[in-house]
Amino acid sequence: MSSKTPLTQGDGYGILIGFGTIFAMGMIGMTICLHRYLGEATDSSETFSTADRKVRTGLIASAVVSSWTWAATLLHSSSVAYSYGISGPFWYASGATVQIVLFCVVAIELKRRAPFAHTFLEVIHARYGRSAHIVFIIFCLVTNITVTSTLLTGTSAVVHSLSGMNIAAACFLLPLGTIIYTMVGGIKATFLTDYIHTVAVLIIILFFAFTTYVTSPVLGSPSKVYDLLVNASQIHPVDGNAEGSYLTMQSKQGAIFFIINIIGNFGTVFLDNGYYNKAIAASPISALPGYVLGGIAWFGIPFLIATTMGLAAVALENNPVFPTYPNRLSAADVSAGLTLSTAAVALIGKSGAIATLIMIFMACTSAMSAQLIAVSSIVTYDIYKAYFNQTASGKKLIYVSHITVVLFGLGMSIWSIALYYIDISMGYLYSMMGIIISSAVIPGALTLLWNRQSKWAVCLSPPLGFICSVSAWLVMTKIQFNSISIETTGSDVSMLVGNVVALLSPIVFVPIISFIAPDPTPYDFVSMRAIELVDDGPRNTRHPSLGETERGIVFLTGKLKFARIIAVVLTSCLVIIWPFPMYGTAYVFSKSFFTGWVSIGIIWMFFSFCIVGIYPIVENQPKSNKWKQNAITVAGGNGQGQKLNQLDHPFGISIDEKKNIYISDRFNHRIVEWKYNAKEGQIIAGGNGKGNRMDQLNYPRDVIVDEQTHSVIIADWENRRVIQWLNRTQRILIDNIDCYGLAMDKNGFLYVSDAVKNEVRRWKIAEYNNEGIIVAGGNRRGDYLNLLNFPTFIFVDEDQSVYVSDHENRRVMKWIKDAKEGTIVAGGNGGGDNLNQLSNPQGVIVNDLGQIYVVDYGNDRIMRWCEGKEEGEIVVGGNGYGNQSNQLNGPIDLLFDGEGNLYAADYLNHRIEKFEKI
């Protein structure tokens, strides 16, 4: 660019410091709000590194787009368009989209085979042990270092060219705010900033597109741009392009770049732990659509920005508004990625420079945060925990993560300054990175995809491939130029040869080494399942249960074939079906075809905006906390009786993932399974009259489903025992206990309320022959905080806090794990029908937000209490006792299905009612 910059140094410092501070403070504030109001605990290492594996499709897509939108995406794609013409944007976009689409298969396999992994490297270690683990630690860290280097070198060069700001200062200030909010908020903060940054980038790209093709006084229409590109093709035709035109897909240098691009980017996706972090953080149903939608949405970004700004630079370089007029951009400026900023200044002046600086800042810092999390995860789990402190607590791991974020961020600033002073540009790094890292792509992917890849193959193939690729790169450079330097090694042909050898050499090495030195037996993938969650103590409340995990694995297994099909189809379309007919025919765009091409880019960008900007908001709208007040009877309701379509005083209820309801049919002395939408139930336990034989029950009160053993556990009240029914066989788990309510925690520990001894006890799995541990009450009957008076139903949350319906005290108590006394969280103001009172509380459930739902038996209603509030609110019922659809009559228990619908055991109406969520 010209020596005079469109912005002052003050502008540069103001934008970097101002936006960095705003985002750091904003994300810290948002993190505090999530912690305070939604229970998001970033002091949990699991939450910090994995967001508890529950991120949904829209935010996954947004995060993928953000992580893949480097400074190079915007800068280098525009430079490619400036150099090769209309083919450049497509080669850049398609050559870097297919990796994201193909990665969805690996993402599904990762979540399916290693559901509790924190990093991809843990999977390598679980399968192959220490040697392979160390090899991949090196390759993955080199990937993160290379990617971060391109971010900082490219962005700092643009900041310097636009404002004259010192390169060293820019390299330090760019990551500063990102370091702060990533350190505080962890991966959840990166998801939130990814969303904000990506939306801002998309808006600015659309602003540039409409300026170039609609409103600009110097361009203003596709027709005007087309005419200027035709003129440019005549003045300085593109070597290797059909007819020397900027308006053809047949471009020899563009095709070479395409191969370099596609190979190099396999490494930066498949070896960047950041993409595995996002797959790990995704909920099982979100991994596939998140990556596919993210890839499709990302395609539009380089495609449109380069079609707009790269071609605008070509069109305007013979216009006096062009900053370097009458000269073209130098090769050094093009390699440094200054095409975009030059075109922006030519189009809009200072406003264009500011918009460019903001856009590049957003892209850099958002992608930078993903790199910080990726490196901190590797250092924390794969280096510190694996080799220095295997029993490290969650708090210790958080400390290591924080230190890593700071040290890596500052270290990369210093490294990027060094690269600047030895004249290593963003373009050079972008083309070279595949040579360095891509030899580990195939062995890494086969770790999850092929059970016969041997340990020696995965250990030796990456370093052997690296040696071959670097040798091929340097030899080709020597053959071409008879000298080796930064300038000569940066040639397209040399880079092409090195990248191809890096990616494809393991195709030779892996099968040969696996044949020569095979593992004793084919791998069964079992050890990957052994990777464990980190126990963070009482604040870690959102881990998936074992039942959730198993359902997730089943779901992912069912989607695997579809993922492979969609990956192959989209890759074929982007790499072969769309571009090569136009390449082979050497078609030169007509004006109308060019107009349509530009229109497709703009339409695609609006589609990307919908995926990235609108869908996450719609998807994450808080669900209504209201239910239809007129219920549907889903079980019983045919009068009191013992027929299979009848119930007789239904008591405790439970539900499985298929919405089958299990009912303690108390006066029929049986447990009935009522399948979803069935007209009658089927007896699965008891039903042989009242008695104490093993095939009989005696007024059972509660039933729960143990999803780990696929059995039901029953509180057999009058027989004073807890029994388990499994595959038509029964066994007594606990006897001599006045069992009323049952609950099971995420570890499979069983909790039982003893209404006579006024206590709740906990038993470990398979240790039912002892007396259990008292976790609430047990100090005699009374109304003090350390006492209970006829405890009925119980609920256990993820941190093993126990909620007890304290029947005769008309209250619900919460006993934190190992506490000596409880706290009143609902009622406690005597019996009555006011909103601060309960009358004979029964069933109780607490949701993820800490809201307490309790059955108010004596008032024929279900109440919701928020912990710390002085009164509750009526959720359903409360319209007097009766048998109308908006009435309950002595309700006993409640439950929620996966869709949030509320079910109530309507005791005196002999039915189960379903209140649909609004």
UniProtKB/TrEMBL annotation:
Q: How does it sit in the membrane?
A: Multi-pass membrane protein
Q: Which UniProt keywords apply?
A: Membrane, Transmembrane, Transmembrane helix, Transport
Sequence intervals crossing the membrane: 12-38, 59-84, 90-110, 131-152, 164-183, 195-214, 255-276, 288-316, 397-422, 428-449, 456-476, 496-517, 562-581, 593-618
Predominant place of localization: membrane
Which InterPro entries does this entry report, sorted A to Z? 6-blade_b-propeller_TolB-like, DUR, Na/Glc_symporter_sf, Na/solute_symporter
- How is this protein annotated for GO cellular component? plasma membrane
Q: Which GO terms describe its molecular function?
A: putrescine transmembrane transporter activity; spermidine transmembrane transporter activity; urea transmembrane transporter activity
Q: Name one Pfam family in it.
A: SSF
Q: Indicate the family of this protein.
A: Belongs to the sodium:solute symporter (SSF) (TC 2.A.21) family.
- State what protein this is by name: Uncharacterized protein
Organism the protein comes from: Adineta steineri
